[in-house]
């Protein structure tokens, strides 16, 4: 294994070491057992290894996991989806590393059965996240609720599970616990774990009393409209209760539990996609006045352009974005940034892989020139890019967020779409997760907001000439939890109607608001939500009331703003794939004056489009597509975008 490859597949920040074998494009297919052993034996201190990522590395076997369990006593996270392993490998990890293991991810390992799951539950009492979709599991051990008290996420979809133990109720009663059991013979039902032979009698008595009360209320209290009654006239809805959940192409609060079992239809189980999407953006790339969709994919997969027809439908996907002079696609993209960097009136694209920044100049017809790698050689680990004119010359500049290896960077635009060599921004001393540019103190110069892993988030105030002051800490130390791979998002906007931009950040488990005090300082943070992973955030007026609302991903939800910095309860989007949403973009794609939602899904699941009916929480699906129900093609509405 060459030193260059080593630089690509692991990071060391002085506190821990993380390996990312599975995130280096086609190279992951070449990773074998001896590569891992060479790295562990000759290149790192194994007592500092915290996370090992070997997803899709088919050359990894049980022997690899057994050696890892013996050599890495402080292992906290292991990702081995799609590897050639069986129960023996997982059992070795559970027995040797179980006391500190927090994340275990082994979907698509079909030789891993009940024995592996039982060992995990018996030995990994600190485990917070367990992912074992599409394996060979048929039984959940009865002691899961007692022996895994810290478990926050349990993904067991697409197995052969026939029974859920009563003790799982202990976890389900926790507000922060997430359980996915889709496409198993048993549905998502549990029984409270209580002893006593009189329990059934008590339950029956309570049920009879509640039935009597409900009957009285039904005939004496005005009844809200049903899901079917709420669907507007003229909306063709051929799939109510058959094919799409929640009443087919219409979604309101009243339809949340109407129209069929949402856990077992094609809405919740989308068709397989060709690629795993990490980022989506919306812009008119060909100058026809209609919005188009830009799709960034990962793992050495091509990016795509969907040319809009102006009615919410799109032409077939155009594959774009190859590296110069080769057929190699951009590797492991995290974010697509769009701006007219050469002032020709057409939006250009800036994107990055782990170490380099690339620019695609728009030809003006929806296609792009070959990409140009912007100045600098190896830049370190890039995690984010943002675009704005920071030095008041009328041309957009680039700000890069860096993780662990160097300070964040600024690239000034020369005025023709070329950029100067990068300069280091004032050091924050931390690992940047994401960045945003906005005027936070009212001086009309964009400032830099930096989300930082494991410490206070920072502000860099602009001097107005493209130089920046020393970092200022936001209140609240490490309040946003950014997760295993330090993923999170930032949005800036006036959320309480005082004409001052507020800050919203989301991470693995919470969504946090800082209200602007108006003088460049911010009030103490307020947690708005903590029931999902808020990796993508968009602020937009979804219901045309002049107040910004919040659209978030993972799961995909809308929070309608009250105008005073508070929000109504989240409303889940229809046909959402909560466990795989990676990115969200919002714009009016059907030209009816209402913002619509594009959802990017990872794990090779199709991307989605939802057409806003006007209230911000009700949507129809674009027309004219073909969906499949029980393997029978049906010409109807569909949320899935072309691939």
Describe the structure.
This protein is 13% helix and 25% strand. It has an 8-stranded mixed sheet. Strands 9-10-11-12 form a 4-stranded antiparallel sheet, with no helix packed on it. A 4-stranded antiparallel sheet has the order 13-14-15-16, with no helix packed on it. The protein has 643 residues and is of the alpha+beta class. A hairpin with an 8-residue loop joins strand 21 and strand 22. It contains 9 helices and 38 strands.
Strand portion: 15-25%
Mean pLDDT: 76
Head-to-tail CA distance between termini: 35 Å
Low-confidence stretches: 1-15, 21-26, 188-200, 225-269, 322-333, 624-637
Percent range of helical residues: 10-25%
Largest sheet, in brief, is: 8 strands, mixed
Based on secondary structure, the structural category is alpha+beta
Number of strands: 38
Number of helical segments with 4 or more residues: 9
Instruction: Tell me the radius of gyration.
Output: 25 Å
Strand order of the largest sheet: 1-2-3-4-5-6-7-8
């Amino acid at each position: 294994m060459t030193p260059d490859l080593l630089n690509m597949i692991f990071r060391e920040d002085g506190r821990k070491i993380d390996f990312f074998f599975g995130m280096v494009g086609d190279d992951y297919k070449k990773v074998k057992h001896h590569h891992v052993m060479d790295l562990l034996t000759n290149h790192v201190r194994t007592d500092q290894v915290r996370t090992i990522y070997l997803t899709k590395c088919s050359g990894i076997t049980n022997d690899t996991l057994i050696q890892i369990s013996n050599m890495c006593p402080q292992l906290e996270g292991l990702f081995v989806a799609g590897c050639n392993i069986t129960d023996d490998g997982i059992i070795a990890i559970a027995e040797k590393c179980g006391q500190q293991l927090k994340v275990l991810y082994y979907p698509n390992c079909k030789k891993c059965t009940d024995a592996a799951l039982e060992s995990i539950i018996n030995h990994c009492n600190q485990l917070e996240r367990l992912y074992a979709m599409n394996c060979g599991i048929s039984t959940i051990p009865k002691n899961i609720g007692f022996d895994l008290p810290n478990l926050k996420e349990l993904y067991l979809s697409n197995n052969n599970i026939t029974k859920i133990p009563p003790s799982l109720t202990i976890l389900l009663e926790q507000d922060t616990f997430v359980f996915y059991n889709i496409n198993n013979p048993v549905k998502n039902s549990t029984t409270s774990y209580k002893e006593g032979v009189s329990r059934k009698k008590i339950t029956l008595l309570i049920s009879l009393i509640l039935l009597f009360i409900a009957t009285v209320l039904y005939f004496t209290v005005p009844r809200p409209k049903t899901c079917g009654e709420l669907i507007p006239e003229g909306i063709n809805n051929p799939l109510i209760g058959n094919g799409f959940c929640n009443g087919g192409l219409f979604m309101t609060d009243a339809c949340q539990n109407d129209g069929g079992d949402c856990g077992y239809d094609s809405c919740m189980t989308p068709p397989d996609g060709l690629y795993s999407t990490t980022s989506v953006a919306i812009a008119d790339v060909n100058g026809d006045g209609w919005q188009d969709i830009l799709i960034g994919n990962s793992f050495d997969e091509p990016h795509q352009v969907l040319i809009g027809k102006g009615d919410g439908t799109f032409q077939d996907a155009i594959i774009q974005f190859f590296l110069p002079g080769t057929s190699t696609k951009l590797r492991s993209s995290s974010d697509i940034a769009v701006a007219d960097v050469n002032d020709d009136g057409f939006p250009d694209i800036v994107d990055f892989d782990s170490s380099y920044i690339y620019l695609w100049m728009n030809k003006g017809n929806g296609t792009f020139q070959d990409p140009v790698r912007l100045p600098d050689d190896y830049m370190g680990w890039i995690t984010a890019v943002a675009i704005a004119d920071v030095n008041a010359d009328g041309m957009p500049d680039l700000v890069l967020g860096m993780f662990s290896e160097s300070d964040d960077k600024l690239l000034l635009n020369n005025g023709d779409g070329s950029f100067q060599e990068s300069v280091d921004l004032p050091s924050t001393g931390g690992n940047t997760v994401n960045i945003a540019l906005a005027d936070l103190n009212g001086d009309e110069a964009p400032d830099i907001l930096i989300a930082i892993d494991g410490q206070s988030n920072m502000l860099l105030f602009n001097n107005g000439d493209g130089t920046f002051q020393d970092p200022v800490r936001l209140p609240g130390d490490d309040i946003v939890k950014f997760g295993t791979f330090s993923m999170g998002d930032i949005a800036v906007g006036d959320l309480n109607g005082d004409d001052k931009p507020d800050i919203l950040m989301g991470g693995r488990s919470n969504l946090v608001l800082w209200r602007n005090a108006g003088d460049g300082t911010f009030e103490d943070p307020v947690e708005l939500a903590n029931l999902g992973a808020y990796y993508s955030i968009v602020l937009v007026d979804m219901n045309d009331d002049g107040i910004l609302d919040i659209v978030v991903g993972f799961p995909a939800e809308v929070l309608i703003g009250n105008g005073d910095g508070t929000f109504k309860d989240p409303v889940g989007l229809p046909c959402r794939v909560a466990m795989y949403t990676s990115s969200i973009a919002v714009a009016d794609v059907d030209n009816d004056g209402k913002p619509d939602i594009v959802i990017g899904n990872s794990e090779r699941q199709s991307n989605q489009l939802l057409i806003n009916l006007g209230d911000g929480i009700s949507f129809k699906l674009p027309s004219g597509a073909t969906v499949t129900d029980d393997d029978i093609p049906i010409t109807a509405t569909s949320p899935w975008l072309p691939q």
